[in-house]
Amino acid sequence: MIENVFINNKIRCSVCIATYNGEKHIYVQIKSILDQLSLNDEIIISDDYSTDSTIDIIKSFKDPRLKIFNNENKRGPVGNFENALSKACGSIIFLADQDDEWFSNKIETHLSLHQKHYDLVISDAIVTNEDGNVIFDSFFKERDSKPGILNTLIKNSYIGCCMSFNKKMLDYALPFPPYIHMHDWWLGLIGEIKGKTIFCDKKLMYYVRHNNNASPTLGKSGYSVLKRIKNRIQLFYGMLFILLK
Questions:
Q1: How far apart are alpha carbons 201 and 182 in whole angstroms?
Q2: How high is the mean pLDDT of the chain?
């Protein structure tokens, strides 16, 4: 079981963001996060060598809590998030996408649940398009999100941008196995088998969907049936390995 990381009810958070050519949305997202962080928290930016003004926009905040690193790992969201997670110093780690917007009570709500000894917290979201129009009022409802190892293997409910977790989970999660195709699915399974997880029904962010999203969540998978079966078999064997650690 993952040990609790709270000491005297004080905690430091790391918010990990993987960026790539996110100039259209990154300012709004970072501001929505910074406004609710304490002075002892941090935002870890791992950038996949953006060619637009993403990094200039991030630097314009002139906030020492923002720490920028180039992704020297495998290119793409999995390697980019792995790089960010490897730099995180906080006891509780949040994942964030570059193009969403967090509500002002998201961090407070998640931390209150971690204080009740949950190792992984996932909260609901309102799904919008990039113009701000609501597509789905509840991500959980549309995805039919459910806890449980079998449910998670069949269909991933652990969307990264809605998650936070105890840093001790990284002892099991990193380095990411080369066969996983989405980092949040892997982290969700680790939370299920090694920790205590909770699905929080509060909607705590706008989850923005557009044509350039790196993840096909809520959209049609681009993988063949054979590839989807292979992904699950690989995750199952990876899960067995973690169970033995």
A1: 23
A2: 91
